[in-house]
Amino acid sequence: MLADVMSATSACRIAFVPKPTMPAPTMNPILRDVPDTIETERLLLRCPRAGDGAAVHEAVVETLAELRAWPASLPWALAEPTVEASEIFCRQGQADYLTRTALPMLMFLKDGGQYVGGHGLHHLDWSVPKAEMGYWCRKRWHGQGLVTEAARAVAELALHTLGMRRLVCHSDAENLPSRRVAERSGFVLEGVMRHERFDPDGTPRDTCLYARVR
Fold first, then answer.
1. Phi/psi at 163 (nearest 5 deg)?
2. Is the separation of the CB atoms in 116 and 12 below 8 Å?
3. What pTM does this model have?
4. How far apart are the C-alpha atoms of 18 and 183, rounded to whole Å?
5. Per-residue pLDDT tens for 105-161?
6. Distance (Å, rounded) from C-alpha 15 to C-alpha 2?
7. How far is the C-alpha of 199 from the C-alpha of 122, rounded, in Å?
């Protein structure tokens, strides 16, 4: 009799086990409100536009040797730069920004409007949400803290305005200026990924993984 009662009780317990709650549907990223302009003390960062290609091309040509020093991290710099290629990048970047598949930004000086370099958020995963930050600076503006100033503003946009839970930054282990930008912008070194990338000649490169979380 006792065994029968226990069996019946167990059956009742099984019958009333609640069903797992289904996760709420993720908002379509295109519906997210993202400002297309950010201002810092010295900079204006904005979404690329048609017609920006000439300014971007000029900066790439000026900085080509420095960009090509890191071919595993910046493979796009190995191609021969042209105004057309830079214009395609800007127009595609604007399209990506509108669809929220990537948020590339161009950096301009507020005083004079000169193009300083590229910044932005890439590899967006809105289901978490999380993203990767990337940046490069025009040669003439190296060493003036402009990229760090921009990185802090972009991180603020990602983590607070857009509600990102994780923001990462990848830097070649030997690219000390890039690493300093991440560290001065509040990113924490989570580890060094050995032989994570390779130069075109097959030389392995170690990559530092920096992150900020919320």
1. 70, 25
2. no
3. 0.86
4. 46
5. 999 999 999 999 999 999 999 999 999 999 999 999 999 999 999 999 999 999 999
6. 20
7. 21
